[in-house]
UniProtKB/TrEMBL annotation:
Name of protein: WelE
Compartment(s): Cell membrane
Regions crossing the membrane: 21-41
Keywords of this entry: Cell membrane, Membrane, Transferase, Transmembrane, Transmembrane helix
Molecular function GO labels: phosphotransferase activity, for other substituted phosphate groups
Classification via Pfam families: Bac_transf
InterPro entries according to UniProt: Bact_transf (IPR003362)
Domain Bacterial sugar transferase: 17-208
Principal location listed in the UniProt entry: membrane
One Gene Ontology term, aspect cellular component: plasma membrane
PANTHER family on file: COLANIC BIOSYNTHESIS UDP-GLUCOSE LIPID CARRIER TRANSFERASE, UNDECAPRENYL-PHOSPHATE GALACTOSE PHOSPHOTRANSFERASE
Tree of life domain: Bacteria
């Protein structure tokens, strides 16, 4: 899956956006290093024993797949558990690829806390440094979700996906498809350095209020 970029953005904007991505990501990884240590320790013992990171294939800019990093908030082999339960998987798809925490058998007790506080997203700064993501942009989705954008998928994939986006700033899981498509695509139309800063601060507020987080 590959698309040419017909939605060109100013080189100066892209340069300062990338510079900001690198600087803030390095600072964030240093500041959150105690969280990495705490999660690593938690994953060594008890029922939550297993890998520190959850890695999943997402679709990035120009349709390029990449592995997104998150702190593991689910049991080991969570994807297999979900797909094995056809009824639960159908509900997951119908609910915009989400399940309520209380009915999701995959989420661990530690995982619920990580998700509620958005701490599970911290490893995505690694994706940002690698150039696969940006701090601000449409949220990267799995291949099945790209299909929802239909003939607008090329526009959606013309920009680098972000750890924070307009959809999250507007309510995240409280806003499902197709409204989510409209929000994410409106970012492509309005993208600028100052608009990115506005979205960043709105996301920070959303994180502290836990709006739509699960």
């Amino acid at each position: 899956m590959k698309t040419e970029n017909k939605f060109q953005q100013k080189p100066s904007y892209l340069f300062f956006k990338r510079l900001t991505d690198i600087i803030l990501s390095v600072v964030a990884l240093v500041c959150f290093s105690p969280v990495f240590l705490a999660v690593w320790f938690k994953c060594q013992y008890g029922d939550n024993k297993g890998p520190v990171f959850f890695k999943q294939t997402r679709i990035g800019q120009y349709g390029r797949p990449f592995k997104i990093y998150k702190f593991r908030s689910m049991i080991v082999d969570a994807d297999q558990v979900l797909h094995a339960n056809q009824e639960l998987y159908a509900k997951y798809v119908a609910n915009n690829y989400k399940l309520e925490p209380e009915e999701d058998p995959r989420i661990t007790r530690t995982g619920r806390f990580l998700r509620k506080t958005s701490l599970d997203e911290i490893p995505q700064f690694i994706n940002i440094i690698r150039g696969e993501m940006s701090i601000i942009g449409p949220r990267p989705v799995v291949a099945e979700e790209v299909k929802i954008y239909g003939d607008r998928a090329e526009k959606f994939l013309s920009v680098k996906p972000g750890a924070m986006g307009l959809w999250q700033a507007s309510g995240r899981s409280n806003i499902g498809y197709p409204e989510r498509c409209d929000l994410e695509l409106s970012y492509v139309d309005q993208a600028s350095y100052w608009f990115d800063l506005k979205i960043m601060f709105k996301n920070i507020i959303s994180i502290f209020t836990s709006e739509g987080a699960y």
